[in-house]
Amino acid sequence: MTILITAILIVSLLFIATERQTHINKAAVAVFACTLGWVLYISFGADFVESRHMEGYQSFLAGIQPNSVVVKQYIAKHIFLPYLGQAASIALFLLATMSIVNILHTNGCFDFLALWIRTKNSRLLLWKLTAFTFLISANLDNISAIVLMLTVTNIILPRTKDRKLYGSMVLLAVIFGGALTVIGDPVGLVLWNKGAITASNYTLAMALPCFIAWALPTFIVSMRLPENVDIERPSLPYRGDDTNLKVWQRFIMFLVGIGGLWFIPTFTAITQLPPFLGALCTLSLLWIVNEVFNHTLFNNQKRRISYDDTPQKMQYNSIQQILYIIGVMLAVAVVTETGAMHWFAEQIDTLIGNIWIIGGITALISTILDSFASCVTMISLHEVSSTLPYYSVNGAYWKVLSFGTAVGGSILAIGSISGIVMMQMQSISLKWYFRHITPLTLLSGILAFVALCIIA
Fold it and tell me: Residue 130 contacts by C-beta under 8 Å, 6 or more apart in sequence?
């Protein structure tokens, strides 16, 4: 049964890696794989329970005669639910941040971006656009950040050629800005929830590598740009009856939303509660402020006519991401419970035994396979150790995996969900990205990885 469950994960990873060829949504594949894996595990789980959870199972029995029903109850309550809790905590965090961005965008709190960033100087435009993206993606999930900033990019730039190039640079800023913090990318959240890293140590270690991986390609591209670029005339988007807030009200909502997200690591450090609770707290505060500022609009029950489909894009893509993350985490979890991951970890340690090489291999794999699936699979190979330095809290292994998969996701763009979203929104082909962007990401990724090796 271990072989069958492991085979299901491997096949599902192959389908995830070939999503563009098979046209089968990776979220659907991940959810189906995790469901089938756990059904098989719970149906034939007596041997697994007796070999891996005998002490807890005997305590659960409390003298009751074991049978198939009791085994299934133990698996459901004491094995499956903890894994579900870990996946749900990530999903709830993303749901909260997605809702925060949706509220802010609907109320026009990001409208100033297009006016502030807009300039005919092509190099200045590129740096302003990507720098703000880099900073904001450290607070938001990658899907929300990429959709929001590409929307701003397309408002400013009328030409498809410019949108492709600037959009690709925005993608790099999103990926490495997200890798900078524990709340900017689901991988960081998984490591944080696992207890493998702390927020401040992680950010300090990632700061220089992430900056190199974003800034170096941006600098090279900026040197190749002409002096000026065609831009659209400056104007704020019309929002129909979505909102009627004044500038100071929008600024307060922006501070509550983004400031609340920045406070989440401190909230978790003080309370020791999961990060998603801090995100939900921020969402609730922003929700209350929104109700207070828009009470007249809500009371009058005016018809809300939106001329901007950005919130719908965020919701659709974020829901897919949430389902995908839940599916991948639970699929990897069931393979871990069979003992296959422990065996695989022993083989890797024997054959390779070097975390830097392992990180490089993981980065290569994540160029084709989704970076989140690659990293979660490798993370599951080891538990946080108090004796082995590489696997201890804030150990180098966790940072190498996280940054390696971020680099891998940027090399071909198809290795990350945000990259796929960017290619769809900007009508970019894999061939175009490979010719114009991949050499830059390879160069910067190698240099950044060397910097991480020195720091970590």
Answer: 169, 170, 172, 173, 214, 218
Q: Are 199 and 181 in contact (CB under 8 A)?
A: yes
Chain position carrying tokens 């599951």:
380
Q: What is the pLDDT of residues 27-59, one digit of tens each?
A: 899 999 999 999 999 888 787 887 788 878 778
DSSP of 269-300, one letter per residue?
HHH---HHHHHHHHHHHHHHHHHHHTHHHHHH
Residue 389 has pLDDT above 70, yes or no: yes
Q: Kindly state the helix (H) or strand (E) to which residue 357 belongs, with its residue range.
A: helix 355-365
Read out DSSP for 106-155?
HTTTTTHHHHHH--SBHHHHHHHHHHHHHHHHTTS-HHHHHHHHHHHHHH
- In contact, 32 and 12? CB cutoff 8 Å: yes
pLDDT band, very low/low/confident/very high, at 301 (cuts 50, 70, 90): low
* Mean pLDDT along residues 133-150: 86
pLDDT band at 7 (very low <50, low <70, confident <90, very high): very high
Can you read off the two tokens belonging to residue 200? Answer: 């401040």
187 token code pair: 């991988």
Given phi > 0 = left and psi -120 to 50 = alpha, else beta, which region is 384?
A: beta
| Torsion angle defined by CA atoms of residues 372, 308, 279 and 399, in that order, rounded to the nearest 10 degrees | 30
- Could you tell me the pTM of the whole model? 0.85
Q: Give the whole-angstrom CA distance, residue 361 versus residue 404.
A: 9
Strand partners, 121: 228
What are the tokens at 87?
């996946």
